[in-house]
Each structure stands twice: as structure tokens, then as C-alpha cells.
Design a protein that fits this description.
The protein contains 15 helices and eleven strands. With 409 residues, the protein is of the alpha+beta class. The protein has two domains: 202 residues, Metalloenzyme, LuxS/M16 peptidase-like (Cytochrome Bc1 Complex, Chain A, domain 1, 2-Layer Sandwich); 173 residues, Cytochrome Bc1 Complex, Chain A, domain 1, CATH 3.30.830.10. The strands form three sheets. The chain has a five-stranded mixed sheet with strand order 7-11-8-10-9, with helices on both faces. Strands 2-3-1-6 form a four-stranded antiparallel sheet, with helices on both faces.
Length: 409
């Protein structure tokens, strides 16, 4: 995607793989980007790799492992300034793309596997990342809440794996996962910036044509099923305030645009019902918001509350859902929600990362929409459609991370 407003170019290569292949752990796959961005055969340590990036006018490489639908997304991306800013006519985009391919397809090897030293160092970083979740109580509550809300589903466990899995990774196990990713992963390449990417396209085509490919992963997503009865779970921890998460599911809800607006009206903006009625008017919590996962058909409400207000906050959230189901939303509420979503959609063009994210997030949809097409669909949504969408949601899980009760006797 070419846009003359940008001064930089970004090339991202993403691999879509089944989350659990039966042979390698989530930690094995999570380790792959850690290792690939640290070195390669041509630049066998991070200092040499960093020096090469510096020579390319401060180009940089980023990595991520995430979950979309029911598949893992492993991404490596390189960002560099456009060639027109090179002082001596260097081909910065081409050389940056080649460096990305060096790291991705020609890693540092040792005895038929990844380097033992690199694996050891990156293993420590992965373990630190996994363990650090407990230090952020909101993230920890999100992780524990997902375990209960999505029990038995790919979303139920961290995409990085567990501490125990990370402790067991080896150069051989991670390299096995890497080979499986190259052979079976669906590959999506997004190039965004000023360039037409002709030279990079040639490099990428030649490089990936050499791979042996078969039984390619087909990205998919199954909506999360509603439990027969809502599950309520709490866990005590030494902390100042409780964190409550409520999961509402609608596996048969197909109106993604009404669903997005419903989430915005309830708790997605500063004039939302959760913020104005629960936080401001009733003073029940420190914050109260929600977000929607359109792939799983789930709206997650979350709040930070004092222990004594947990049940009242839960009841207040349920009351807002019931009110929309029974009485609908006002035109004013809907207009403000539309404006928020439209502004967000328009801001997609502000950066190369945002543009790439916009389109990659729709890869499993029947039709990929431009921001303008998405805005047009949002504009069509009526209060009746939002009310109908809300009626499809049912409370599935409530997870509360509670402050430990102090014993002052």
C-alpha cells in the first residue's frame, strides 16, 4: 500500500499457525520471534545486527506473537526511512527487506538447531515476560478471567505459554516449531509506505519460493459457546482494590457493526453508560469500561472497585445491559458512539502500523473493508439494530480478583 504522505516504509511478514499442533508448546512458538530478531547467520550477535540497522539510517525490526480468531500470529517487521532521504543514493528499503529475510530465513544455527546461547538468553526474556503479568493486576485478572471464560478454547491460555513450558524449551524444540511454521503457516506480507515496493516484492518472492510448503493452516474462528449457567470465580491477592471482569457472549450474533456500537455505548467512551452512570453518578468504582471481541462474539466489561462494592457494581453492569435490551439506546447515544468509531477509522491513515493492522484484522472476514466502507456500514446502524444485538448477549463468566481481607484482630 503506497501513500506519498509517509516518510517511512514498513514491511511485515506474518505467519498464521494452529495454536496447538500437538508437538510443540506455545512457549516454543513464542520463542521464535525472540530468537529471530536477536541475530542471524550473517550477523551472529545482537551488537552486529544493531550496527547493520544503524548503517541503514536507524532502521528497526520489531516482533510480536498474538492470537487472532483461533490461530497464532507470529510477525516480524522492518521499518526504515524511504530511499529518497538517503544521502548517497543507498537502497535503504531493499537492504532493510533483505535484512528482514536474513533474520527470518537464515537464522544463526548450531548443530542443526538454534544457537544454544541465544536460546538460553531469549528463554530468560520469555520467562520474565510470562512472570511479569502478575505484577500488573489488571493484566493478571485478564489472564485468569480468560482461563475461566474460554476454558477449553485457544483463547483460554496465554499465547506465550506457561512458566513451566518456557522452562522446558530447548534449541531443538524451538527450531522444530520454527520449521513447522515455515512449512505449514499461512504467510501474509504487508508493505506500507511511500515506496512502490517493487524491489522488495522481488526479494520476497524469490526467498519464499524456496520454501517447502504443504498442508497450509487455514485461519478460522469459532464463536465462544455460552455456559449453561454463569460461572462466578474469585481469587484473593494482596492488593488495594478488586478487579472485576464480566464476560457476555453472543455466539449467534452476526451484526458486527451493531455489536461494535453496542460496546461503545455501554463502556467504550467517556460518555458511555458504564462511565457516566456507574462510575460518576453512583461512585461505585474507580473505572468501568468494556470492549468487544468480534471474533469470539464476546463483550468484556471490566472495573476496578473497592471490595465492598463488587456486588453492587456487578448488578449495575447487568442493569445497563437489561436497560438496553428492554428500552434500547437513544439517538444521541448512538450518534456519539458512531462519531467515536468513525474518528478511530479515519485515524487509520495516520501511520503505517495502523494501516497494516486495519487490514490484517480482517483476513478472516468474507470481505475486507476500507475505512471508508466500514464507516458507511456504521452510519447505517439504527437504534433497533443495537437493541437487537444486545438481546443476543448472555452473561457467561464473572471473574473477580479480590483484595485479601486483613486480619486486624
Amino acid at each position: 500500500m503506497t501513500d506519498s504522505r509517509f516518510k517511512v516504509n514498513r514491511i511485515a511478514v506474518s505467519f498464521y499457525t494452529d495454536i496447538d499442533d500437538g508437538r510443540h508448546t506455545r512457549a516454543d512458538y513464542a520463542m521464535i520471534p525472540y530468537i529471530l530478531v536477536d541475530s542471524c547467520a550473517k550477523y551472529p550477535d545482537y551488537s552486529q545486527l544493531s550496527m547493520r540497522f544503524s548503517e541503514l539510517y536507524g532502521a528497526s525490526m520489531s516482533d510480536s506473537t498474538s492470537i487472532m480468531g483461533d490461530v497464532r500470529v507470529s510477525t516480524l517487521a522492518v521499518t526504515s526511512i524511504d530511499d529518497r532521504f538517503a544521502l548517497e543514493g543507498e537502497k535503504i528499503e531493499r537492504d532493510s527487506c533483505q535484512l528482514l529475510l536474513d533474520c527470518l530465513l537464515d537464522p544463526l544455527m548450531e548443530d542443526g538447531a538454534f544457537s544454544a546461547e541465544t536460546t538460553r538468553l531469549m528463554q530468560g526474556e520469555l520467562i520474565d515476560a510470562i512472570d511479569s503479568v502478575i505484577n500488573d493486576k489488571r493484566n493478571y485478572a485478564a489472564q485468569k478471567g480468560a482461563e475461566n471464560a474460554y476454558c477449553g478454547e485457544p483463547w483460554g491460555l496465554s499465547i506465550q505459554g506457561t512458566h513451566e513450558e518456557a522452562e522446558k524449551v530447548t534449541p531443538q524444540s524451538v527450531y522444530g516449531a520454527y520449521q513447522h511454521m515455515l512449512e505449514h503457516g499461512r504467510i501474509e506480507i504487508f508493505a506500507v509506505g511511500y515506496s512502490d515496493f517493487a524491489e522488495s516484492e522481488k526479494l520476497l518472492t524469490e526467498a519464499f519460493a524456496k520454501l517447502t510448503r504443504r498442508d497450509i493452516c487455514v485461519p478460522s474462528c469459532k464463536p465462544s459457546a455460552v455456559k449453561p449457567e454463569p460461572l462466578c470465580v474469585s481469587e484473593d491477592m494482596q492488593m488495594q482494590q478488586a478487579v472485576m471482569r464480566m464476560y457476555f457472549k453472543a455466539p449467534d450474533m452476526e451484526d458486527r457493526f451493531a455489536g461494535a456500537l453496542l460496546s461503545m455505548v455501554l463502556g467504550g467512551m467517556t460518555t458511555s453508560r458504564f462511565f457516566t452512570k456507574i462510575r460518576e453518578e453512583q461512585s461505585l468504582c474507580y473505572y468501568c469500561s468494556c470492549f468487544s471481541n468480534r471474533f469470539k462474539r464476546v463483550i468484556t466489561a471490566y472495573a476496578g472497585v473497592d471490595r465492598q462494592n463488587v456486588e453492587r457494581t456487578k448488578s449495575a453492569v447487568l442493569a445497563e445491559f437489561r436497560d438496553v435490551c428492554e428500552n434500547g439506546v437513544s439517538e444521541d447515544e448512538l450518534s456519539r458512539a458512531k462519531l467515536e468509531i468513525i474518528n478511530d477509522a479515519k485515524s487509520v491513515y495516520d501511520g503505517v502500523n495502523a494501516i497494516a493492522s486495519w487490514y490484517t484484522s480482517q483476513l478472516m472476514d468474507d470481505k475486507i473493508l476500507t475505512p471508508e466502507e466500514y464507516i458507511a456500514e456504521i452510519q447505517k446502524v439504527t437504534p433497533e439494530r443495537v437493541q437487537a444485538a444486545c438481546r443476543r448477549y448472555s452473561l457467561d463468566t464473572v471473574f473477580t480478583l479480590m483484595p485479601e481481607v486483613s486480619d486486624d484482630r
